[in-house]
Write a sequence for this structure.
């Protein structure tokens, strides 16, 4: 219970941090709301009593009494409406923004390898989906407790003054309901956990049907049926999971309703007997019946505090597991590499993605000298891209080390290290934002930034296209959020991604298939510009097209995770090994 309470306090702390007066106004609302149920009971009692007296003066007294009650209720309604519909709504936005920012900030410090783990990804999904709403649930749980306690005090006073025996009926009913609710919460949490994967699959299919990058394949290859089947399959799985819990959930629901009905019937029978023997009058009968029902709901809310807190805590545990994830790579601290020319060396490098998967890289020894132009080539699955990920320190090697300037990569601050390295991934991303933002990978802040964007677009051969657009470099890519947005071709998108390299002063530039979407002439022109721009920098190009690698200072041929051959184009051709074989196969396609 201590942990559960601590989790709740943690969430209240997040609320206070995001919206400092939310808890205060919520408490005021709870106090006012606690008055209303007691007020209604008193109105019923006094109205019947005054009307049963048959006195004309009593009618005037009733009117005055009701007028006061209306004024009190008006204050409660006006404040409640302001709190729920105005202040509360805007406060919810602040809380959602603040807590989601914590989650997104944490994502920056989570190793990419964590997302290879389906279990962690499920925890992450629950954290993202539940966090902000769960914080509001925690606040509601506490304010409902306060409201219920205050209402309880008022109702108990009325019952004790009229007939305390009624309290026993209510308590017995509530104890049974609490036990049943605790059981129901445990079942519901297990049910939700089992459904996480199915819900993720449904959301995935949903994204495929509206994201433009998948539209051509889905339409051309008529994949609607295939993915619709996957969607139906996930729904069927969801239904199967639900069936596992149907009997338990239905039984609990029936028992909860049965307890409530039997309590009401027992109360009516007891009060009817009291009325028949003359122990109470009709006003007392109505008052006791209403008060017993209100007390039942109030005590249930009080006792529900613990199971609701426990239920909230289970979801908060998911959030904490996510927030408390300890990164081995994405963390602050270490040496900041200075701008300049660097030596990168891999020594006896081995890597596997998990303890049970095979080696993807094996016994890699590699030295990249300052200013060298390196080409890494090989067939699909040879380990080229994985090696790049290691050099970018997205992953740490399973064994062996990578050094920069004689120091282990792990001694450097990882973000500072990456700021010295520019990269265009094979599966690069462009975003639904302006062309300028996509080049700079941040917002434009000055005229100097604008000029940097223009120069970068000119170097990659895309400026003529962009300058002809209505909004120039501020034209938004895709039509997802802007009907005036533009959709670039694959080659244009690739040039845009390469423009990022020209826009920043990197010491080392890595290109993973930098021109795969371009025709041979455009590819030759762009490669020439890349080499020219990287004249004083280290350049690493990963490519399937060996025509782009001929002028490299060093060519590395990889196969099955190993470096099989290394040398200049001339020396490797003279070696007449695997590189030469692959180069000749590709050359034959051009020369016949």
């Amino acid at each position: 219970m201590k942990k559960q309470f601590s989790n709740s306090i943690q969430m209240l702390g997040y609320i206070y941090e995001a919206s400092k007066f939310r808890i205060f106004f919520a408490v005021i609302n709870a106090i006012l709301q606690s008055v209303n149920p007691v007020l209604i009971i008193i109105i019923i009692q006094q109205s019947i009593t005054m009307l049963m007296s048959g006195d004309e003066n009593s009618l005037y007294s009733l009117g005055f009494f009701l007028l006061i009650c209306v004024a009190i209720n008006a204050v409660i309604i006006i404040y409640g409406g302001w709190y729920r519909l105005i202040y509360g709504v805007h406060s919810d936005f602040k809380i959602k923004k603040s807590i989601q920012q914590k989650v997104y900030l944490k994502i920056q410090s989570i190793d990419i390898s964590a997302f290879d783990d389906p279990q962690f990804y499920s925890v992450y999904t629950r954290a993202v989906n539940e966090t902000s709403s769960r914080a509001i649930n925690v606040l509601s749980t506490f304010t409902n407790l306060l409201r219920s306690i205050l209402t309880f005090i008022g109702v108990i006073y009325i019952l004790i003054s009229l007939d305390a025996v009624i309290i026993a009926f209510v308590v017995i009913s509530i104890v049974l309901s609490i036990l049943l609710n605790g059981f129901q919460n445990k079942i519901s949490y297990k049910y939700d956990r089992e459904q996480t994967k199915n819900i993720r699959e449904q959301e995935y299919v949903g994204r495929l049907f509206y994201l433009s990058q998948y539209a051509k394949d889905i339409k051309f290859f008529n994949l609607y049926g295939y993915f619709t089947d996957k969607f139906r399959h996930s729904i069927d799985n969801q239904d199967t999971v639900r069936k596992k819990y149907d009997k338990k959930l239905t039984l609990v629901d029936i028992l909860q309703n049965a307890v409530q009905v039997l309590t009401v019937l027992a109360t009516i029978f007891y009060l009817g007997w009291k009325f028949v023997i003359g122990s109470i009058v009709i006003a007392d009968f109505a008052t006791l019946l209403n008060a017993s029902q209100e007390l039942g709901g109030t005590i249930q809310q009080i006792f529900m505090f613990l199971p609701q807190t426990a239920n909230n805590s289970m979801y908060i545990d998911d959030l904490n597991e996510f927030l408390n994830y300890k990164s081995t790579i994405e963390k602050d601290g270490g040496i900041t590499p200075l701008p300049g020319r660097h030596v990168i060396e891999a020594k006896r490098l081995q890597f596997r993605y998990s303890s049970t998967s095979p080696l993807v890289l094996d016994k890699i020894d590699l030295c990249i000298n300052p200013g060298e132009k390196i080409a890494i080539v090989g067939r699909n699955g040879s380990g080229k891209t994985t090696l790049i990920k290691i050099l970018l320190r997205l992953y740490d090697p399973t064994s062996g080390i990578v050094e920069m300037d004689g120091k282990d990569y792990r001694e450097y601050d990882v973000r500072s290290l990456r700021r010295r390295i520019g990269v265009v991934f094979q599966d690069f991303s462009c975003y639904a934002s302006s062309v300028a933002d996509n080049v700079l990978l941040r917002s434009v802040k000055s005229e100097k930034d604008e000029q940097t964007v223009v120069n970068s677009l000119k170097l990659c051969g895309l400026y003529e296209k962009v300058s002809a657009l209505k909004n120039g470099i501020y034209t938004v890519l895709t039509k997802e959020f802007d009907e005036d947005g533009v959709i670039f071709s694959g080659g244009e998108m690739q040039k845009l991604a390469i423009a990022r390299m020209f826009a920043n002063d990197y010491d080392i530039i890595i290109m993973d298939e930098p021109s795969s979407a371009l025709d041979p002439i455009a590819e030759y022109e762009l490669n020439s510009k890349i080499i020219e721009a990287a004249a004083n920098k280290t350049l690493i190009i990963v490519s399937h097209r060996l025509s782009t690698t001929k002028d490299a200072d060093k060519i590395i041929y990889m196969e099955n995770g190993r470096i099989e051959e290394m040398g200049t184009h001339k020396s490797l051709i003279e070696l007449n090994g695997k590189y030469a074989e692959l180069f000749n196969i590709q050359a034959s396609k051009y020369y016949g």
